[in-house]
Each structure stands twice: as C-alpha cells, then as structure tokens.
Specification:
- This protein is 34% helix and 14% strand.
- With 147 residues, the chain is an alpha+beta fold.
- The protein has a domain at 8-104.
- It binds iron/sulfur cluster (2 copies).
- One iron/sulfur cluster binds next to loops.
Length: 147
Amino acid sequence: MTESFITCDKCPESTCCTKLNVNIGEPTNLDDWGEIRWMVAHKNVSVVEEQDGEWSVVFDTACDELLPNGDCGIYSIRPQICADYSMTECPKNGLGPLYVKEFKTLEQVDEFIREEVIPALEESAQNFQEQLDYQLSRVRSWPEKVS
Ligand code: SF4
Ligand code: SF4
C-alpha cells in the first residue's frame, strides 16, 4: 500500500469503474500477437501485462451505473466482481506502476514485436534446432548391433 492510500469516499473519479479489464492468455506466438494488433487497432482499447503476470485487454469505458459523484448507482445489487474488488490493489492504492507492459497503439505493438518477440522466437528456434541436430547425430552414430 502506498503512503497516499485513500478510501473510496475520497476518490470521486472512481478510476476502477471507468475501465473494463478482461483477462487474455499470455501471448506466446505470432498468431497471439496478431490478435493483439487487431485489439489495439480499436479506439479506447489497450492490452496490458499486469503486475501479477496476467495479460488483459482493457476497454477504456466507464460503467453506465457510475454516478457523477463517483458513487455506484446500484451499490446494493452491484455485480459480484465489483463487490470482490480489492481496494488495496486498485489503481489508486496499488503498489508501484499498475502495468508492467501497456500497448495502446498498433505502432507500439509492432515495435515490441520487432524488438522483443521476433528475436525471442528466433532464439527459441535456434535452441530447438541445436537440440534436434544433437539428437540426430546420436541417432546416426548409434551402433547397428549391440553384441
Ligand atoms: S477502489 Fe480505488 S479506484 Fe476504486 S473508487 Fe476505491 S479508491 Fe477509487
Ligand atoms: S456496477 Fe457500480 S461498482 Fe461496479 S463498475 Fe459499475 S459503478 Fe462501479
């Protein structure tokens, strides 16, 4: 918890009610990154990696039930996910930066693909090829008969 810890009654903007985060799996291949390119090409949509390693698509759109004074208009029947939300991990009170990675534009995604994703995939492919070559060399030098 940060020193500037505040309670919800002192947070009229209710930041937590102005975005919709939906978990997606961690991107592991170029197809996944292709989907992320498509997501962020939409207005008010970003993709983030959160502090706990979860990846989410974030829709920057306020809840219709959020009142102008920051209160919830349906507090007694608010969705369970709202009731379960941990105030100490919220955008106002969480530890450190909210996101480890944040992609808001197609250009940001493409730059990350060029500089991080492709080199990592090339390294994996090279490691795989070296393992394959090693296994093939063992197979080829295997004795024809074991006496
Ligand atoms: S949970 Fe955090 S962001 Fe949401 S209203 Fe309370 S203090 Fe504000
Ligand atoms: S239902 Fe209420 S608590 Fe939940 S996001 Fe909307 S305004 Fe916030």
